[in-house]
Fold this protein.
Amino acid sequence: MVASKAKANVRKGERVDSPTGMGGGNLVAKRKIALVAFAFSGMAALIYEVLWSRELSLIFGSTVYAVSMMLAAFMSGLSLGAIVGGRWADRSKNLFAMFGFLELGIAIFGLLTIPLVQALPTLYFFVYDTLRPSFFLFFIIQLLLSYIIMLIPTTFMGATFPVVAKINTVSLEELGNDVGDAYSVNTIGSIFGSLGAGFLLIPLIGVKATTFVAAGLNLSVASLMIVTSRSTEGKRWFSMGAMVLVLAVLFGLFTQQATYAHNFYRIGDFESYDEYRTFRDSLQPLFFADDVHGRIAVLEEPNGNRFLQNSGKIEGANGAFDKQTTSLLALLPIASAENPKSMLVIGLGTGFTSLAALGTPMESVDTVEINKSVLQASKLFVGDAIESDARATIYTNDARNFLYTTGKKYDVINSEPSYPLSTHVSHLFTKEFYELVEKHLNDGGAYCQWIPRYMLKDEDTLMMLKTFQMVFPQTYAWGSNIGENEAVDVMLVGLKGERTLDPEAVDKVV
């Protein structure tokens, strides 16, 4: 787009005339300043992208569909911005000032996403309660709600590229190099922004403060460009924009971050929005943490029921049903293995599975959990009972990476990760992962896999069973929390070696 505009106005080898506002002073130095500023602009943009993806996934979930909707909203805003930004750049009398105003707009609307994100669950559930949409309409609604958060700031982000590209373009002969320089510095900044947001800023200072950091980068770039432009009128407009920014800051500061997000996985639990709101307002937060792998919260209902929430999904509770399932996940494979002495539990969660294993004569129980915050949260369910047991060892690692790097073998392995619908754990339900598990089982060992039957269609459950049996031909299935002749939770037990199992004998042991 930039190249076609340049060709329309410049013959080969001819220098591009400097628009008004770019002359005066050292133009080469100004262009270098703009490039450096564009790198920080890219850094802020990817910080926002990480923030918005994380916040929206708490509400929409982290399925392939939801992630696609969020990414589509972000990219379409950038595309729209590139189109309108090219036209603005052609008409602008001061490109440096325009760059500054775009960055100021990003800062303002970036901060306004703080209260918008907090209001989104209310809007989301209200729309769902009103429309009760079909599968297709359900995700269209997610896309439209994503636009509410992202469209305006991402349009401003996209508009900065043609503006900076034109600032840095000297002649048509050097057009490719000049535009490439702008693109490369922005990409470098984006890389540092995504890494910094996910691995440093959010774990250390949280989502809200990280949003202020991103807006601060935009404001710094805006101020630098307005000063560089030497435009009296630009400074006057910038002062007015700064006042709007102050209001956005106040909105952000006085918006309380929600500790509870009941996302689409359980949206059907409530008959109406009023029922959802009553339930939400009754919850007492006991633990809350943002870290590299997501948002962990422990909440308590007035009746004393506690549940562990991981990035908007309820992944464990202290109720009788949950305790039954998590205990069976340990006891069933132990009763199915030959002379079991060692066990690996994949996924700590509330800690009840590891605790149930330690209640048997097992000599060692290893637990691998990727999220450090879950280790802290689990103490609100099992206290220090696991850590105080000399037979127990907890590893903070990804389950697949742990199995790839350890040389240990076990008599029993159990896996109860998050929902298979989630993109970040779906690999733990694959044939390749089961093959990796099988390599770490001793002869006569048993592997137990949790299947959330209540979330899956019949064909999906059968597909997962078939995948499991490709690695463990000797497979037995148990159900727990059975209602209306159907199990809510299914536990598959696969045996290593040529042997059979007497399910009734296992039931007696359990």
